[in-house]
Amino acid sequence: MGTAKDYKKIQDIVASYSSKLKEFSEETFLLNPPIGGWSYSEVYFHIFDASILSLMEMTNTISGKGERKPTAFIVKVILFFGSLPPGKKYNAPKRLAARLKKVSKTEALALIDQFLLELDMAMKKIENADSTLKTPHPKLGYLNAFQWLRFIRIHLNHHLQQLRRIEQSYQR
């Protein structure tokens, strides 16, 4: 999938997040689900906080910062197939887990808007990115600008599936 397709897919996924956000009452949004784990609020904070941080790394590579490091083969496979390997529980990197907090629906919407604004700005510059310059991801190793964009899409989609699991837990 190319850069333009990744960008369009990210916009579609974010539209799904925005649409789902409207469905929740503020109380349900903040409530920890019956299955345990993160509330809707914490998922929204995590995914858009992490996405904004990923955009910062993507922008760093676009602006010429980074190192010429290899990308691990397994990471190339994940990026190629566009999803994390199934059947495994993934924990947020410690740095991101320490940032986790509950936010209101209004704050979540502001994070979404901030992410989309920063994504649009980065997309205007990505064609100038040097694909050999990479910055470190806390779990996946070194990624270039195009790989960061693909990772953002994969990560957003992964947590959209998490929202579905939370929703199903309320229906049991």
TrEMBL record:
Residues 21-163 form the DinB-like domain. InterPro entries: DinB-like, DinB/YfiT-like. Pfam families: DinB_2. It comes from the Bacteria. This is DinB superfamily protein. It comes from Pedobacter steynii.
